[in-house]
Amino acid sequence: MKVTVKRELLLWARNRADLTVDALASRLHVSADRVTEWEASGELTLKQLEKLAKASYTPVGYLFLNEPPTESLPIPDLRTVGNRQLARPSPNLLDVIHICQQRQSWYRDFLRADGARPSEFVGSARVGDDVVRTAQAIREKLHFDIEARREASTWGDALRMFIDQTDAAGVLVMCSGVVGNNNRRKLDPEEFRGFAMTDPLAPLVFINGADSKAAQMFTLAHELAHIWAGESALSDVDARSRPAHRTEQWCNQVAAEMLVPMAMLSNQIDRGNGLEHEMSRLARFFKVSTLVILLRIFESGVISRAAFQRAYDAELQKLKAKRKGSGGDFYLTQAARVGRRFARALIADTLEGRTLYRDALQLLGISKVDTLHELGRTLKFGV
């Protein structure tokens, strides 16, 4: 069955997915000439159109519109390059936010049905509030002070503790480097590192798992500052950057102070030691990454910005070289991707018959009931 669509919509779909003619043709297993022919005429079969939509991550209904739609982000975009806001969001980013909105909506309804009360910490601060007091409030709520971190052997263990404590406090934490469970749709840390979706009942933080583990700790702390301020936001937080937006500046300051209190750092730092030695020693003491320590050493005035940038770039390359593959246990990975708090609630509700298996599988991004049951066993459910 032949269909005719607007040529500009076919061009828009390909450009939206950042694909060349050759790249799209390869995905569709057709010649580049065939794709060019479609884009010139707007004529192709319905089956070809459906395959093109799938290959370009475009809702097929969009291709029957009269003109390309304007796709806007559903949360405030605080990412900037210089002082300019970034251009069109990728399909991967849009789809990840949409997935998180669905999960947050389900969890909000779940809590309402259970008679839960709003979280007292969401919106308990305002952008511009005292950084030290706000950071202290977050540490106390999460039970993630320096003494608690001493239980962790490494800063990697401390990151897992940080996520678990945030989850226990009532914040949904989802960490993934792909869209859903599609390992072909990898997220780009250069586009975004995380986002916060504030809600009185179901606050949510998403961490781009494609980013380095060292960066993820700072991202989580930064997004929690957004939750405390009661403001949803998409961020490209980077410890090296000086954000143009006032909110991002404040969240960066709160994150740094929350992880490494400046007063404590000042008492611990030994200016007689070399920078590399102090980075490693202080990272072990505070149980944070060397990148966070380097930022705080710079902010303490011990080194110049130029020296900080050089040292940061060198340390980042060193950490990337040590980075291991993404293998591991599927069920533990899945629990991290959807968040343990969310997964436990959804599986429990499904086993009790209040949520349909069909809906639970869709929200978890899996296709088999057996997989849901095994995920439940991983999360210590008796299924």
Written overview of the protein:
With 383 residues, the protein is of the alpha+beta class. The chain folds into three domains: 2-64, lambda repressor-like DNA-binding domains (434 Repressor (Amino-terminal Domain)), CATH 1.10.260; 80-260, no CATH class; 330-378, no CATH class. It is built from 18 helices and ten strands. The strands form four sheets. It has a four-stranded mixed β-sheet with strand order 5-9-8-10, sandwiched between helices. Helix 9 (213-229) crosses helix 10 and helix 16 packs across helix 18 (369-378).
Task: Please provide a brief summary of the model.
This protein is α+β, with helices and mostly antiparallel strands. It has helices at 7-16, 21-28, 32-41, 46-55, 91-113, 131-142, 146-149, 155-168, 213-229, 246-259, 262-268, 275-286, 290-299, 305-322, 330-338, 340-351, 357-364, 369-378; strands at 2-4, 43-45, 80-81, 84-85, 172-176, 178-179, 182-186, 194-197, 204-208, 233-235. The protein has 18 helices and ten strands.
